[in-house]
Each structure stands twice: as C-alpha cells, then as structure tokens.
Amino acid sequence: MGEYRWYLCHQLFWSYAFDLFLSLWKPIPLWPFYLGYSGGILNGIPSKFSSLPLIVMFVLSTGMGFSIGISLFHRYVQASPMSKYFQEYSILWRRILVYAIIFILLLCGICIPIAYNIEDAKIVRASIESQNVDMKVIFERESSITGYDPALNGNESAIFCLILILILIIVILCLIILYFNFLRILSKNKSNLSAATFKLQRILFKALYLQMVFTLILLIFPILSTFILIMYGIKWSSKFSICVLMLTSIHAIADFAVMTFFVKPYRIFIISLTKKILTKIGFKFKVTTVTPLVISTTGSSTPAIEHFIRNERNNMNL
C-alpha cells in the first residue's frame, strides 16, 4: 500500500465532511427562484451569514472531487514505474506543493465568482418580494434563505449555474476516458511489474473505479439533475431535491464499504479498531493461542504430530 493509504484517508475525510455537512444543512430549493433554505440545524442561522453554508458546500465539493482526482492520478503514475515522470513524481515535497497550488486555484475559481455575485440579503429579499408578494411570509419564517436573483446581476448567476452543469458533464466524460486509458497503460506496462504488484494495482483500481461509480450515481447525477430542474423552473424541483438529499447522504457509507472490502490493510485496521472499542465497553473476544511444539525425530510420533498440526491449522482458518 505504501503512501497510497494517505490518499485513501484524504478521500474519506472529504467524503465524510461533505456528506455530514449536507445532512446538517439539508438545502431545500424555492422554485422558481435561485434560492434555498436550510431544513436542518442551520435553519436558524442569521440572514447576514445565510450565504456561508453555500460557500462551505462548494469548498467541500471541490475537496472531494480533488481527492478522487489525485487518487486516480496516483494510480496512473504507479502503473508506469519505469517512466521518467515517475522519478519526478516521487519527490514528495514537490508533489505536495503542486497539489496545494492546484487546490487553491480550484477554490478561487469556484468560490470567488460565488462571493462576487452574492448580493446583500436585504436587497435580494426586496427584489424577490417585488416579484412575488407571497415570498414575504417565507422570508419572515426562514432566516437561512440564501441564493441569487438574476435580475440583480444581469443573469450572471444563471450563467454560472450553467457553467457548473457543463463542468459536471465534462467530469463525467473525463472519468470514462481515464478509466479506459488506465487499463491501456496497465496492460502496456505489465511486463515491468511483478505479478504481486500487478494484482495489487488491479485490486486498487477496482476499488477506485467503484468509488467513482458511486460518486457518479450518488452525487454527480443527482446534483446535476437538480441543477437542470432549477434552471428550467420545474415545479417539483423542491420535492426532488429532498429525494436527492437522501440519496447523497449514503455516499460516505458506500465509499467506506468499498474501501473496507477491497483494501485489506484498511479492513484489518477497522476490525482491530472496532474490537478495541467493543472491548473497552465490556465485550470480550476469544483469543486463539498456538502452543509451540517440540517435534520428535522418532518415526512413531511423526504421523500424530502432523495430524495435530493439520487440525490446528484448520482451526485457525475457520
């Protein structure tokens, strides 16, 4: 596993943070406006901080996507250990520096336009209420309402939403292309890898492939569908978003299950940690001890000893 375990931990951190925050926030869109409010514990947040959860959500989304991307890239590089680029990639401090710069640039590219287009909550409220007087009751009841009014920024918020949809579609296409390209690289460099390394690469890539599939099914497709419904002003987009929220909330569980099943060191660590926790709260586990044997050189005792050893091995394998 080597340093790849840190990529897995990095992936799990962002995945768990994203799903946890999404479950706590529970954003509910208000059709047909580019607005939403919290259905969770952030429901009572003051209106002056109402846009903060939106920015945090985009930061966590960027972090999760970035963690999956660098994990996939790491597997790519590991599949070509004889290449010159692999030697450059092995310099840890340079790799971390490049990753940090890319991550900061991604955050700036996503969060700066959001912060730039956020209008004062009072101005947005006045504009929305002028379009629909019924919204006054909702604004008074839900202080966590956040979002945009395209009428205030020349439809820039709508254009930004469309750009996000296009980015998600491009990400889907890139994942498909990268999957087949990795198989090509792995087959090409099979002669440069030992049998054990090649087998490990295939197992880890299967795990990464399933993680990407779950990301597509449980995150990208549902969120993409919600964006499209809101863009076209579909009336039942609010109800659909609640179903999407329930679907996305199980992403971390699916991610954890894949890693536990495919990555043996991680599975052993989880089992060991679980046993330690259960032991502290009173549970007891049977510990199998193997008694050292002194094997006699006499021919009469050898069959009995071999039979005993076979029984012990069978018991340990159960």
UniProtKB/TrEMBL annotation:
Record's keyword terms, sorted: Membrane, Transmembrane, Transmembrane helix
TM helices/strands, residue ranges: 12-34, 54-76, 96-116, 157-182, 203-234, 240-263
Coiled-coil region: none
The name this protein goes by in its record: Serpentine Receptor, class H
UniProt source species: Panagrolaimus davidi
Lineage: Eukaryota, Metazoa, Ecdysozoa, Nematoda, Chromadorea
